[in-house]
Queue: 2 jobs
Job 1
Amino acid sequence: MDTFGSIVPSIAQCAVGSALAWIVAVQLLGHARPLFAPISVMICVGVGLGQRLRRVVELVVGVSLGVGIGTLLVSWIGSGPWRMALVIALAMTIAGLLNTGELFVSQVGSSAVLVAMLVPHQDVGGLDRMADALTGGVIGIAAVALLPASPLTIAGKHLSGVLDALSTVLEQTAEAIEKGDMDLAAEALECGRRTQTAAEEFATALENSKEIIRISPLRWHQRARLARYETAAVPVDLALRNARVLVRRTLAALGEPSPPPAALAESLREISEAALLLQLELGAGREPMLARQALLAVAARERPKNLGFSANVALAQLRSIAVDLLQATGMDHGTASAALTPLNELSDESMHG
């Protein structure tokens, strides 16, 4: 259901935009069968929420140019499989000379295919088809702006995926420490290695959300809430990276004479819960004060003593994750770092160990 709900705006954009493009092409441009107007809307909306505006505009121009070039070439060369291949090659070559972007070139080629396959014998001018495609593209962009998906929903969904992944890795690591189970730690490490994809998807989703807000007046009022996601983006990515290092050192520490203490597992669980609190508060549009308080409580706790080398490194990574997540709540780096137990205390404990 969530997956279907996420595509409902695109369905509405395609349906309404295609109808409007057809009406405009028929009523204002006087074209009897403006096939390429709704096709251009469909193509534009299909990438409108997944690409930056510059690429959408590039696509619209590519569709229009491909239709025009394809029509001219078909009128000179004719139709048929081999002629179609020649039309595609020539159209993409011309596009490549005009613009080296892959999207632009491929869109010119695919539009030329449509011309060669669908309407090679109709008595319709190439300029009319270009006008239809351009009309559809412009209306497609307008549909994305006037019937936009929620940028907060897009950003929030992907940030939830990142924080869920972080929380899972920390929970699994805590369980491995409590049970002294190297196999569980290895599973946590494998889980951690898969988290980077979620972070990259969130970064892309955030860019898309910012693009929607820029082009859609209906979403301008959400800029302040989206800014909280922007604040969290880099620190959360760093927290994931530090979590992967933490799991690796935990796995090593479990094989050493001085394994990680249960207190370290407790702190990991509390940071895991704080990550979920951060997710909930940002999703609710609130300043993440509860998550910040939970992280500060972990930061202020007395540190375990008598740790081995790998356990000490894991503890250092836990400190880094706490700082990262405090920054994700909006705290500056200096204040977040100052909330931690001073490093000299940790050094004294390690020396006494």
Job 2
Amino acid sequence: MTPPAPQRAYPVARSEGDSDPRFTFGLVSNVAKVLQAHGYPPLVVGADLLELHIALFHFLYGKEGGK
């Protein structure tokens, strides 16, 4: 018998309010640096950084923003 798959940890629920103090520009910037360290091209400030910000937000909080 196969054991059940573990529950997903993400998306996480955000607390009441519109912001999460953990979700900062520094977090997005660090993810960009990790991608570059793994051989991906550097992000272009502006469009690329905005797209990474949105993708990371959706991963962390879901498409509905974790509300």
